[in-house]
Amino acid sequence: MFKLPNDQQGVIVGLLLSDGWLSYASANNKYPHFGFEQAFSQSSYVWSVFAIFSRYCYSLPRFKTKIEILYKLVLSLLLLVVCLV
């Protein structure tokens, strides 16, 4: 267990209030993963958040392709941060 610095705590709270989420990788996992997703046009924002939390990330942000209603192709970047407790 570790304590995040205040500036990183503020970023996490802000993202959770907007586009972020917490999830567990499995039912047996006791540490949540934090993630958020942005449109590809906002990739600079994803990379700036990644720079803040890179020491806690197990991988680079990854591209995700999805088809939304009206068959619009959306490219997005997904960032997962491991074990935020």
Written description of the protein model:
It is a single chain. The protein is an alpha+beta fold. It has a single domain (6-81), classed as Endonuclease I-creI (Roll). 26% of the residues lie in helices and 33% in strands. It has helices spanning 6-16, 43-53, and strands spanning 20-23, 33-39, 62-68, 72-81. A four-stranded antiparallel sheet has the order 1-2-4-3. Strand 3 and strand 4 (72-81) form a beta hairpin. The longest helix is centred in the first third of the chain and has 11 residues, at 6-16. The N and C termini lie close together (6 Å).
Instruction: Figure out the total of helices.
Output: 2
Biggest sheet details: 4 strands, antiparallel
Based on CA atoms alone, the radius of gyration comes out at 14 Å
Strand order of the largest sheet: 1-2-4-3
Our measurement of the CA-to-CA distance between the termini, rounded to an integer number of angstroms, reads 6 Å
| Strand coverage percent | 25-35%
Contiguous runs where pLDDT drops below 50 for at least 5 residues: none
Let me know the CATH homologous superfamily: Homing endonucleases
Helix and strand content put the structural class at alpha+beta
Name the shape in a single word: globular
Question: Mean pLDDT, as a whole number?
Answer: 77
CATH fold-level topology: Endonuclease I-creI
Listing every helix as H and every strand as E from the N terminus to the C terminus, the arrangement reads HEEHEE
Helix content: 25-40%
CATH architecture descriptor? Roll
* Count of folded domains: 1
DSSP summary, beta strand count: 4
By CATH reckoning, the class would read Alpha Beta
